[in-house]
Specification:
single chain; 129 residues; 6 helices
Length: 129
């Protein structure tokens, strides 16, 4: 059975990956590296091999979903799970991580801003912390 920490890492990874890809239809190398680094920050004692495994599993789960709408719905469920399992400070960290991922390719799109605002609403916190 997965630990709470594993469930949180899986939810974070899916949320970050969906954010990276679904907002503009592409996932750049810089965005993927940023996602990997952000997941590593949440699990600093976890090996890069394990982080890579989490990312691969998440990419497979993401690709298995039929369309953007379904992927975003799952990301929304992940956000609600995080809201229920993380402290307010940690939720703000998630929002900062999303901002960092958005900035990784040098352009923060309207779609990315809207996604962050939506997640902020789901968390019940202000994005400007």
């Amino acid at each position: 059975m997965a630990s709470d920490h594993d469930v949180i890492l899986d939810a974070l990874c899916f949320l970050y990956l969906t954010f990276s890809h679904a907002t503009d239809g592409e996932l750049t190398g810089d965005e993927m590296r940023t996602v990997a680094n952000k997941i590593r920050e949440w699990a600093p004692n976890t090996s890069l091999e394990v982080i890579g495994g989490i990312l691969k599993k998440t990419v497979a789960n993401y690709k298995a979903l039929p369309d953007r709408k379904t992927r975003c719905a799952k990301a929304s469920d992940c956000a609600l799970s995080l809201r229920d399992n993380l402290s307010f400070d940690s939720l703000y960290t998630v929002l900062r991580d999303l901002q960092s991922i958005a900035e990784a390719d040098g352009v923060v799109s309207e779609e990315e801003k809207n996604f962050i605002a939506d997640i902020s609403d789901k968390f019940g916190v202000s994005a400007a912390h």
